[in-house]
Amino acid sequence: MKTTLYAAVAVCLLSLCADSLFAQVVFIDQTTTIRVQPNQRRIVAPSSYRIKEVDVQATVRDQVAQVQVSQVFQNTGSRALETQLIFPLPQDAAISGLTLVVDGKELAGKLHTKAEARRIYEAIVRKRRDPALLEYMGQGLFQTSVFPVPPGKESRVEIRYSQLLKKDNGLVDLMIPISRSKHCNRPVDLMKITVRLSAGDSIKTVYSPTHDASIDRTSDSTAVCKLQLRNVFTADDFRLMYGTRNGLVGMNVISYRPNPKEDGYFLLLASPEVKVDPSKKIPKTTVFVLDRSGSMNGQKMEQARGALKYFLNQLRESGEGDLFNIVAYDSAVESFRPELQRADEKSIQKALGFVDGLFAGGSTNIDGALTTSLGMLTNPQRPSYVMFLTDGLPTVGVRNPNQIAANAKSNNKIKARMFNFGVGYDVNSRLLDRLSRDSRGQSVYVRPNEDIESRVASLYGKISSPLLTDIAVDFDFDVERPASAPKPINRRYPRQLTDLFRGEQVVIVGRYKQSGLAKVTLTGHVGGEQKTFSFPVTLAKKSLDESNGFVEKLWAARRIGEIIDDLDLNGHNQELVNELVQLSIRHGIMTPYTSFLADETVALGAGEMNRRRARDEVGAQLSRESGRSGFNQRALKERLQNTNRAPQAAPASRVASGTAGGGFAGKALSELDKLQLGIEDAEVAYRMQSNVRQIGQKAFFYKKNRWQDSSVSNEEEKKAVRIVQFSKEYFELAATQGGKLAKYLAFDESVVINLDGKTYQIDPTPIEGE
C-alpha cells in the first residue's frame, strides 16, 4: 500500500517559556511504499536524513530573551526530500519578531488558528500513527512552505525571535525544548545550548531542574549557562530559572501542591553574592588525611599526590588566613607538622615537598589517622573541614567500624565537617557514611577507573570559600496554631545543613501543611557574628498545572535516599520499608531493593507480598558493607540524598529509547554502571530500565502486555473505559485533555491510565486480519 510518510524530528527550536514551544521538522516523502507487518503498530520512517547539529544561542536581559536557533540537517537518501517545518505555538506566549531562514533565505509561512492547527495535528498523527503532536492540541501553529533538500546535501534552518519571559515568585522561567520526536531512529549528532543572563540587580539564584549544565558566574549581574549533548535520541526539555536580589544572600522558594488535601512540596534555593569583599573572607581550617597503605601503590598514589598538590596550590592562591595540615597513614600515622600551619608561601612549599615524599606501603590504621587529625582542631569559631581518603578496610589498631565511628564522633570536639572519599570497592562504605552523617559531611565514592585527583579537586573547589557557616532555615507563618498542631514544615532534606560557599547554592526540599504567605529566615555566622536574612514567600494552596511538578519528584528522590540511609545505619524498620515501596511505585524511582517491581509478573497491588520482598532485599543487600555491591549501593544512596534534579522522564516509546527506561534518571542501560544503581544481575537491570517509565508526574510499569499507570487500583482498572488509538474517541479525549495531559497518550502499546479521575484503557488500532 502507498503511504505518505512523515519523519519528524523534534528539536529545540522556539521556546523560552514554561509552556513548551516546540519545533517539529517534518520530512514529507510522497513516493515511498511501506507494507505494515503484523505487530507493527506504527509506520517508521526510513533513515533518509540526519540532524547533524542544533545550536541555541540565547541572551536574556531582565525578562526579555533574544533567541537564535540553528539546525543543520542532511538528506542521506538517494532522492530529494520535500521538507516542511511546523511550529506549535503555546498559549500565552509573548513572542515577537519571528523570522525563519533556510540556507540564508527567509522562508514564507502561515499562521494557523487553534481550530485549523488541530486539524493539521490530527492529520499528521493519523498518517504517522505517532501521537507525539497530541500535546499541542489547543495551540496555534506556524507552518512554512515546502522546500526541497537534494540528496546528500545539507540544509541550515535558523530561527530568530524575541520573547517576554514569565516571572513567578521572583524567578524568571526559561524553557528550551530539546525533546526529540518519540520515533526518530537517528540521534542528533551534537546539541549545544548557550544562555547569557544579565540583569540590573545582582543575580543570585541560577538553577536548572532538568540538566547538569555548567554555570559560569562572570559577575554579580551576569552569568553564562552552557549545555552540550552528543548523540541525542531523547532528552528532557532544558529549563533554567534565575532570580535577582541585592545583598550578601538571595533566596527563592518554588512550591507545588497537586492535591490540597495532602501536604505540598517546596524547593528552597539560597545563593550568595559572587564577588565578595576580601575583608569579608572567612578564614578556614582544612586537614587532608591520606591513606598511603600498600593497596594505594601505583596510579592511585600518583593521583592522590596530585589531589594533595591541587589542594596546596589552591591554598597558595586564595588561602590567606587559612590553616592546614596533612596526615598520612599506613600502619603508623605521620603528620606534615605536629600542629596546624598557616597557609603562607613558606609552609606550602615545604608541604609540597612532604607530598612528593609520600609512598605506599603497610597496613591501614584508620582510627589512628582520624584521632590525630581531629585532635588538631580546637577552635569552634573557625569553619573546619577534614578531607579523609581511604581505599581499604581498617587492618591495624581499632578495627571495629562502629567503634571507629564512635571514637571519631567523640574526638570531633568542634563539630568539624568530614568529607570522606572511598576509593575502589574494598572500602567499608557503611563506615564512611556513618562518619559523614555524624559530622554533617558527605561521602564521595570513586570507582576503580575514575580519577581521584579530579573528584577531590571538584569537591574542594566547592567548599574552599565559606561565606556563611552553620546555617539554619526557618519558616514563619503569620497564623496562630495550637501547640499540639503538626509542624507546618516537615520532612525537609537535607536534614542537616552545612555552610554556604561562594559560587554554590543551597538546595532544600520539603513538605508543607500551611499554605499562603510566609517569611523564611536564613541565619548563619560570619566569623563569630550571627547574621540573619529574611525573605517573603508564597506557598501554593492548589497548583493549577504540573509546571513545578519536578519539585515533588526531587523530594521523592531525596526521601528515598534518606530512607535507605536510615535502614543502613540504624537497622530494620518496617514502616520505612513500606514507604520505600510506596514511593518507588508512585514515582517510578527504582532501587536495588525495589527492582523486583519492574518484573512483568509482579503485581503492583500485591501490597503485603511486595513489602515482605522489599524487607528481605534490604536485609540481604545492605548487609554488604564492602565489595562492589556495598560500594554501589552507598554510591546510589549518596546520589539520591544530594541530587539537585528530579529523575528525568523516559520516552513512552521503546523504539525511541532502545533499552532506555525508568530507574533513577531514565538513562540507557549502557549507562547503568555510570549511574551506580547497585544492580549486579544484568537481567534485573534490564527490566528496571525497559519496564518502567516516568512521564510528567506519572509512573508507568509494563504489566500483562500493557503499560499501567501506577496510580490506578485494581478496581479502577476493571472499570476502565476502552478506547482505540487514533479513533474518533481517541482524538476527542486528546482534545478534551489538552496538551497538559495528552502527553500521557503517546504509547505504542496498550496503556491503562487515570486522567482527571477517570480510568481509560487505550489500545492500539487493530491490524487488519487480527
Describe this structure in words.
- It is a single chain.
- The chain is an alpha+beta fold and 770 residues long.
- Helix content is 25%, strand content 34%.
- The chain is built from 17 helices and 39 strands.
- Strands 7-6-11-4-3-14-17-16 form an 8-stranded mixed beta sheet, with no helix packed on it.
- Strand 6 and strand 7 (105-106) form a beta hairpin.
- Helix 4 packs parallel to helix 5 (401-411), helix 5 (401-411) runs parallel beside helix 6 (429-438) and helix 9 (574-587) packs across helix 10.
- The relative contact order is 0.09.
Query: What is the terminal-to-terminal distance?
Result: 18 Å
CATH class of the largest domain: Mainly Beta
The Cα radius of gyration reads 28 Å
CATH topology term of the largest domain = Immunoglobulin-like
Content-based structural category: alpha+beta
| Beta-strand residue percentage | 25-35%
Number of helices: 17
The major sheet is characterized as: 8 strands, mixed
Estimate the helix proportion, in percent: 10-25%
> Which descriptor suits the 3D outline?
globular
- Supply the CATH architecture of the largest domain: Sandwich
Mean pLDDT: 84
Name the strands of the widest sheet in spatial order. Answer: 7-6-11-4-3-14-17-16
Tally of structural domains: 5
> How many strands appear in the DSSP assignment?
39
